[in-house]
């Protein structure tokens, strides 16, 4: 079996020498690339090719990582790729990852591609629980990740369930609380809605600014033993070297900042850290694995060089990159402001159009109501006119009857009745006739008054008819669209935009205003930090009642203890530095 494998490797080597090329697959955090390389290529040749393909200029943070035995290693730039302990089976797979982390992401990361690669790598480490993240910070980080992917929150688009397929929280956090996926999504979406207006780059930078304050951010851990044989962990990061207990990766027992280390020596698998203060003892430790020792040495040298580089004046290339980045960000900010103005004008125009449509519908309804009222008024007027005519006819008829009764009374008076009985009867009839005449006169007068009232009602009905017609004409004239009816800052309903109204000149005043905004952001940094802490505390309070205490991991318990004591990553670092300076004798 071994001879067959050796024969196969020899055949592959022979073919490679004949072809003088080999294939490499480069895996980044969001894409895979394949390249054909020459056999003689060194690590730097392949690294430069990949960086050009990515458009990456901040190359000093990155490298090629590969797996070897039970650890990882990095391709050396001055050594041939095929001379490393990589699998020779083509395509050779290498991981393009950040090897060194910045002290301050916002100040050091210039290019958007650099920031994006760091964002993806840190996000992956948090989700894989290689970096411990408390639950409240996990929710806030998840909301910025959603903002970076989906843009501004829109309740009509981002409905419940749109994050169902997204991996946003560490499994440890999900298992720690009695919360359903919908409850987690609701918490994340609540924070996500507050990030409106942030671009993808802004959201990713906010993510990194929060993540860089986590205790395990940017630290590479290695198992070591001190000269007493005690098992410890060595942490290497951008700030210095840290010594931990194996069961506590959050709080270091001792730290050596890079500016307080005089020398790091390596001999016969033993490391010696010599502090700048000669009164402090040399700290010695060793690791049993040669490959791990080489990796520790590489990371120490690289992080120390970057530590010194940050404190020197930027090179011409970095200054040019920062200037270009500032100009690009200023251009994007101006473009974003222009788009926001266009969006605002469009919204104003749409609101004006909606108002006009609503007003038109309202006027149409009023016109219909006025028309109906007019028809009812006309019908009422016709009825009143008919009643008035009938009343006049009745009054005329009653007048005729009253005249006839009066004539009859006169005729009866003038008629001679000889007999007393006839005279009494005639007197009685005369009395009845007089009473009837009086009644007829009263009825005639009442009918005349009723006729007058009906005439008055008819006149009022005709006046109401004239007013209804006038209102209908007025409503009809208002419903006709006129440009003067649109507000000065709105647009007509056709939503056409003039290029003159939406043009924007990039003048010195804009640059001055942008500079003032940048200065204002610096001044408000402390207030934002306070707001961030308040936001994290609020999230923690909301979900604390649903926590399952029995599922807390050792790191959760350690983090809670640190929080109760008021300690953080930076306060721990300052504390151990003060203790290291004041301590005499052995450190560990």
TrEMBL record:
Major localisation: membrane
Coiled-coil regions listed: 313-471, 515-552
Gene Ontology CC entries for this record: cell projection; plasma membrane
Domain of life: Eukaryota
Gene Ontology terms for molecular function: actin binding
Record's keyword annotation contains Chloroplast: no
Family matches, as SMART domains: B41, FERM_C
Subcellular localization: Cell membrane; Cell projection
Binding site for a 1,2-diacyl-sn-glycero-3-phospho-(1D-myo-inositol): 76-79, 294
Annotated FERM domain residues: 22-311
Segments of this protein annotated with the region Disordered: 554-588
Basic and acidic residues bias spans: 554-567
Keyword Coiled coil: yes
Basic residues: bias regions: 571-580
Keywords attached to this entry: Cell membrane, Cell projection, Coiled coil, Membrane
Recorded topology in the membrane: Peripheral membrane protein
Record-linked SUPFAM superfamilies: Moesin tail domain (SSF48678), PH domain-like (SSF50729), Second domain of FERM (SSF47031), Ubiquitin-like (SSF54236)
InterPro entries from the UniProt entry: Band_41_domain, ERM, ERM_C_dom, ERM_FERM_C, ERM_helical, Ez/rad/moesin-like, FERM/acyl-CoA-bd_prot_sf, FERM_2
Protein name (database record): NF2, moesin-ezrin-radixin like (MERLIN) tumor suppressor a
Organism encoding this protein: Oncorhynchus mykiss (Rainbow trout)
Lineage start: Eukaryota, Metazoa, Chordata, Craniata, Vertebrata
Gene: nf2a
